[in-house]
Every structure is written in C-alpha cells, then in structure tokens.
UniProtKB/TrEMBL annotation:
PANTHER family tied to this protein: COPPER-SENSING TRANSCRIPTIONAL REPRESSOR RICR, TRANSCRIPTIONAL REPRESSOR FRMR-RELATED
Pfam families reported in the protein's UniProt record: Trns_repr_metal (PF02583)
Signal peptide: none
Organism this protein belongs to: Enterococcus hulanensis
Identification of the protein by name: Metal-sensing transcriptional repressor
Xref: InterPro entries: Metal_Tscrpt_repr, Metal_Tscrpt_repr_sf
Amino acid sequence: MSHRPDHQVDNLVKRINRIEGQIGGIKKMIVDEKPFDEVIIQLNSAKSAIQKISQILLEAHADHMFMDAVESGQTEKELESLRRAIHQYSKML
C-alpha cells in the first residue's frame, strides 16, 4: 500500500477497531441470550464492515498494481497479482 496515503491506513485501522467492538458486542449478545434474529443482524453488519475493508484493499491493490506496472513495465506479473486479489475478494461475496 505504499502508493496510498498514510490517512488510508489510519482509516482502515479505525474500521478494524469498530469491527472488533462489534464482535465483542455480538459475543455479549450471545452470552446474554439475546434473540437470534438480533444476533444475526449484528453478524451481517460485521460481515458487511469486513467486506468493505476488503473492497478498499482491493481498490488500493489495483492502484498499486497499475503504478508498479507503469514504473516497471512488468504488466503480466502485476496483472496476475491483481487476478489473485480479485479471486480472493470474490470468495467473500
């Protein structure tokens, strides 16, 4: 992520911290025997938050790959890296 500004890293860390809080809340809901539908709603919310981080990282990887390909001229190597990232991202959907 060297082509991304530092504030992007800070944003990702904040998002992860929020997810950690969500997971702790979900754990408490289970211990407190909250209704399953409410727990599932919170699980879906956490899943969406994780998916958003993956999207941000995939976009950053695409930007990084493009910059590296332009600088190095090794487009095939960079495209293969992007293909692997897209493949992993698609598994989340």
